[in-house]
Amino acid sequence: MDDGTDTDAMGGKAPVRASIDVGVVVERRASQNRWIDETWMPVSVIAGAPVGEPWRLMREADGVRSYLARVLTLTLHRSEVESYRLNLGEPVPRVFVVMTPAEEGAMPYEVLLVTCASYEAEEYLTGGDAIVEPVPMPPELLAWVADFIDMHGEPDTFVKRQRDTAPALVEHKFGKDPIFEKTGRYLSASKDEGNGNDG
């Protein structure tokens, strides 16, 4: 599998980043909701897909149209290795696809991002307009990500991590609740400053 890599400034063997082209397959279905005519859902990714025009119709059957919506570059970063490690530790490792409403063109959405880091995908859930969908990671892509993780060795257990817990990946259905569930602890900022003793 061809990919691009950059070594660090010290000439280390572990790459700073690695990249590969990934095609995103999106399905268009007629909606059962009286207020919505159709739904658009990322369903899979294809590692090493050839670059071409977006929204190429792949097949149509039983009222479902499958498009190769876009080929994007999936880039792994050394700083996100722990997030990739958590992802591959899940029962079903995922690639996260982000789609946003298109500003122009015949299609209602534009495929904006593919990532293997759940934290990166989570950032797009706050705006309300983006569709963030996890799709199964194909075996060849899983092996590529695993190799990248292995090149960076085991995590240093003595270094305090920035996050106490990773966002929990929960079951998600298209058009339903977000795929992430906030699990971090939040300290209350409320403090009664008038309870102190004067004397």
Indicate the multimeric state.
Answer: single chain
Number of continuous helical runs: 3
Helical residues, percent: 10-25%
Count the beta strands: 10
Low-confidence stretches: 7-11, 164-197
Domain unit count: 1
Radius of gyration: 21 Å
Determine the mean pLDDT.
79
- Summarize the helix and strand pattern as letters: EEEEEHEEHEHEE
Structural class: mainly beta
What best-fitting shape do the alpha-carbon axes yield?
elongated
Task: Explain what this protein looks like in three dimensions.
The chain is mainly beta and 199 residues long. It has one domain. It has 3 helices and 10 strands; from the N terminus they run E-E-E-E-E-H-E-E-H-E-H-E-E. Strands 1, 2, 3, 4 and 5 form a 5-stranded antiparallel sheet that branches. Strand 1 and strand 2 form a beta hairpin. Helix 1 packs across helix 3. The C terminus is likely disordered.
